[in-house]
Amino acid sequence: MTSFTPFASLAGGALIGLAAVLLMTLAGRVFGATGVLTGAFLPTGPGDRGWRLALLAGMVTAPLLWRLFAGAMPALSVPVGPLALAIGGLLVGVGVTLGGGCTSGHGVCGMARLSPRSIVATLTFLATAIVTVYVIRHVIGVQP
């Protein structure tokens, strides 16, 4: 059974959208999480590392702030082992490389700009996710 969390999902999506708008407004940059991470370690120009490190620091400290105010971290359940997580991470890395960006860059910023490349990439992400869930749950039989 999958948990349905419309309010938490809406709040999270609104925060991601707000972050994307603020980054574009304040720094003139498109928000793509993998691009931010990559550029923090391989900066493309002078002054490019600082804002990336600040954004990454916010991503890391936000859950800690949640714990401070909510009293506990949200419960997480990972129905697969470390090997499956590692393989999934590698597949995501390959997909990000082949797709020229990640779901936040293409799905949030690219779609908002009506970028044809981002529309195709986002549709590919969604189709792949649908097929993957179907195969894992209904063909292989792994349930969360």
Automatic annotation (TrEMBL):
**Taxonomic superkingdom:** Bacteria
TM segment ranges: 51-69, 76-98, 118-136
Segment forming the signal sequence: none
Q: Which Pfam families match?
A: Sulf_transp
- Compartment(s) of residence: Cell inner membrane
What are the UniProt keywords, alphabetically?
A: Cell inner membrane, Cell membrane, Membrane, Transmembrane, Transmembrane helix, Transport
Supply the InterPro entries for this chain.
Answer: Sulf_transp_TsuA/YedE (IPR007272)
Entry membrane topology: Multi-pass membrane protein
- One Gene Ontology cellular component: plasma membrane
Q: Which family does it belong to?
A: Belongs to the TsuA/YedE (TC 9.B.102) family.
Q: What is this protein called?
A: YeeE/YedE family protein
